[in-house]
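[Help] Beginner question about ligand-bound structures

Sorry if this is basic. My supervisor gave me a protein sequence and a SMILES string for nicotinamide-adenine-dinucleotide and asked me to "get the holo structure". I don't really know what that means in practice or what format the answer should be in. Inputs are pasted below exactly as I got them.
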Amino acid sequence: MEKVLVTGGAGYIGSHVMATLGRRGLRCVCVDNYANSSPEAIRRVEALAPGTVEAHEADIRDTDALRRILATGGVTSVIHLAGLKAVGESVAEPERYHDNNVRGTESLLAALADSPVRRFVFSSSATVYGHPQGVPISESAPTAPQSPYGENKLEIEGLLARLAKDDPSWRVINLRYFNPVGAHESGTMGEDPSGIPNNLMPFVCQTAAGRRPQLSVFGTDYPTPDGTAVRDYIHVMDLAEGHVAALGALAAARDGTVMTVNLGTGRGISVLELVQAFERVNGIAIPRVLTARRPGDVAVCYADPSLARQALGWTARRTLEDMCRDAWHWQSLNPEGYRKAAA
Ligand SMILES: NC(=O)c1ccc[n+]([C@@H]2O[C@H](COP(=O)([O-])OP(=O)(O)OC[C@H]3O[C@@H](n4cnc5c(N)ncnc54)[C@H](O)[C@@H]3O)[C@@H](O)[C@H]2O)c1
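Answer (accepted):
No worries, everyone starts somewhere. Holo just means with the ligand present. The predicted complex, written as structure tokens, is below.
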């Protein structure tokens, strides 16, 4: 059976990717140091796709550990999700981010060089576009990351491009995710942020659950229909299916292929639109205060998803209502995330 090395597989996106691959009959070899996740997530994946995950607690910067894991054989491709992802934290601790994200990727590539694996899918981000000059954003739009985190993503894309140029036996797809939200429809897996959530949907969910007194809406004077910021929210299961499509595209691609593909819906949703959809779908009021813009926030950001359709044969299928319903289903069944279950 085909095996996929999934770095960061215990994380929010990785767990949904592994469950999706497992249900399609693929096996996953997960490498995670649990810096921002819990082994409980692996147990949840196993419950959905029994016998499909082989989990290793390891840091991707430990090249020898990766070599030992790869030496067990059978891995044909890699999905590289492991990384630190808090934009604000990356501004405060740029060296730690570079070390973990960029040096971690170099270590992974060094381990892979000694193996037969030459198919690589990388978790990049729409944050590489910075303040977009226009929307929808296509992959040819200029890149101008505004944080060390975004710079890490672009640097890694550059590493992968050089790798495939120097050794054309590689095939690479960089997936630039827009704003993943929602949860597995079973309600057993979802986003489990530690501390105060940075992102809108987990904040909305925690407010709905009474863990936060109210939601702050940052900025009501953007040049958008209702004045609040607009993003391209994409259901995490659509995103996970995008990875299956990327693996399929890599299998069919020519050696030396390097593709960069947006994963988004192509539809911009404002903060208020999302909050109102959440209230409507789940029948829960979200107390909110309207406050000033947050420095650095972009007004409008959404994808041109046409390349994903052409090159991967993939399009997002799930609606904003699905995202809101599934996020709340997960939150209400797991009010403390994975922590309580793991204790
Ligand atoms: N969630 C988003 O909004 C978003 C958007 C764009 C891109 N991404 C990227 O997608 C990837 C996955 O994001 P996520 O939301 O699932 O984040 P996450 O924090 O839930 O998952 C990342 C996983 O990587 C692991 N990890 C971190 N450093 C590691 C290391 N040195 N060695 C081994 N494991 C390590 C963490 O423990 C965690 O399980 C990240 O690379 C992130 O930058 C996420």
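A couple of things worth pointing out: The longest strand covers residues 119-125. Residues 215 and 340 are 24 Å apart (CA to CA). Feel free to follow up in the thread.
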